[in-house]
Design a protein that fits this description.
It contains three helices and nine strands; from the N terminus they run αααβββββββββ. The chain is an alpha+beta fold. The longest helix has 46 residues.
């Protein structure tokens, strides 16, 4: 009887080990992959301010480490350029987004003294002020500038950087570009009412 009980105990142990192995190798990896994929997708959407739940997670930090290890801190690295293009993209840059036809229209915009590179990025000097001009019609209540960074804990979260002063339909101001800044510069015309118009520039400070 003691031998049979011991056999049952060992059988239960082996079954338990088998269940643990099954969970460890067949269940956890797919679940972890799905979670990581969703987090990276959230990371990417936050880069373009497409969502507001942009609190950084451990997956974000690991992803940033992977970017750095792959040479992401080097602005001349082609893999880095491709990664940046994938994250914040050039598709939204210089494209006017409006909440409706009643929103103000950003007719023209200019980063004074700057021209985009072949990849669509403007490269102002970090730590210096950049003059921004725009012509806006439609009577907005105010015109604001935002910096939308990438690759940091606040990635994808717009940070107010200035208010553009109006002279008729002409607006202008200067904004301080942080050293090493990579992300977007957003012109946001607010109003009339709850309407908004947004225009983006891809920025990589040099």
């Amino acid at each position: 009887m003691a031998t049979q009980k011991m056999s049952r105990d060992w059988m239960e142990v082996f079954i338990g080990i088998g269940v643990i192995i099954f969970i460890a190798f067949l269940v956890i990896p797919p679940m972890a992959t799905r979670v990581a994929t969703k987090e990276i997708q959230r990371y990417r959407e936050c880069q373009v301010a497409a969502r507001e739940d942009c609190k950084a997670s451990i997956v974000w930090r690991l992803y940033d480490i992977a970017l750095i290890q792959s040479g992401a801190i080097n602005l001349t690295n082609s893999a880095y350029q491709q990664e940046i293009q994938g994250l914040i993209g050039s598709g939204r840059a210089k494209t006017l987004l409006r909440t409706s036809d009643n929103a103000a229209i950003i007719d023209t915009s200019e980063l004074v003294g700057q021209n985009p590179g072949a990849d669509g990025f403007y490269r102002p000097n970090g730590g210096e002020e950049l003059e921004v001009k725009a012509t806006i019609t439609g009577n907005p209540d105010e015109v604001l500038l935002y910096l939308v960074p990438k690759g940091v804990e606040t990635a994808g979260i717009p940070e107010k950087a200035g208010v553009m002063k109006a002279e008729g339909t002409n607006y202008s101001t200067k904004v301080l570009i942080p050293n090493g800044y990579v992300g977007e510069l957003e012109i946001r015309a607010v109003g009339p009412g709850k309407e908004q118009s947004q225009l983006y520039f891809d920025i990589a400070a040099q």
